[in-house]
Amino acid sequence: GQEKPPRASPAGPFGTPLQALPLSESVEGVPRFLVQICEALRCHLHTEGLFRKSGSVTRIKALKAQLEAGESCLDSAAPCDLAALLKQFLRHLPEPLIPAELQEPLCRAQQHPAEGERGPLTLLLSCLLPRPSARALRYFCTFLRDVAARCQENKMDAANLAVIFAPNLFPSCLLNDAPGAERRLLLQAG
Fold it and tell me: How many CB atoms lie within 10 A of CB 102?
C-alpha cells in the first residue's frame, strides 16, 4: 500500500494530548474541539437522556472519521452521537483531564468527615491542576451546569451527569467489579 506522508499534527482530537490540541478562538486556553462539540450540543440540551442514551456506533465511527479528516460535521450530528463523541474525547486523552496524581486526593476530599470541609478541600486541590487542564475542566463544568439547568426536560441533573462523567474524568481509578467499585464511583461523582 501507499505510505501516508508524515503529518505535522496528529489526526483529529482523539488521543491527542490536551496541550497539543488547537485552541479555540472564542474561549481562551480551551481546546477548539471541546468548545465546538459543547456548542453543537447546546442546541440539544432539551433532549431527554442526553449523555445517558448511547448513540449509533456506525454514525459515531463515521463522525470520528470525518473529524479526523478535518471536516466540520458536528452541527448536523444526532445529539446522542455528539454526547458519545464527547465522552470518547475525554476518555482517550493520553493524560486525563484530571491528572492521575490528583484523582485519589480528590476522592479522599469527598470522604472528609466534616461535610463543610469537602468543598474547600476540593477547591484547594483544583489549584494544583495544570493550567490547560484547569481551563478545559472549568469550561466543561460550566457546560455541564447548563445541561443540569435543563434537567426538567433532559432528566440529567448534576448527580446523573456526575455518575456518567466520573469514569471519563477519572480513568486511572478504573472501576472493576470489585465490591468497592460502586462506592468509588460515588466518591468520584462527588
Answer: 19
Residue 130 and residue 15 in contact, taking contact as beta carbons nearer than 8 Å: no
Cα Rg of the chain (Å, integer): 17
pLDDT in tens, the chain (190 residues): 444 433 444 557 999 999 999 999 999 999 999 999 999 999 999 999 999 988 899 999 999 999 988 888 898 999 999 999 999 999 999 988 998 888 888 888 888 888 888 888 988 988 999 999 999 999 999 999 999 999 999 999 888 898 898 888 876 554 444 445 555 555 555 5
For cell 470522604, the residue is: 111
Q: Which residues, in sequence order, are CB contacts of 28 under 8 Å at separation 6+?
A: 135
Angle between helices 181-189 and 100-109 (to 10 degrees): 90
Cell numbers at 164, concatenated = 456518567
Is the pTM higher than 0.85?
A: no
Look up residue 144 and give its three cell numbers. 455541564
What 3-state DSSP class applies to 42?
A: helix
Q: Which of 70, 64, 88 is nearest to 7 (CA)?
A: 70
Q: With helix as H, strand as E and coil as C, how does 97-122 read?
A: CCCHHHHHHHHHHCCCCCHHHHHHHH
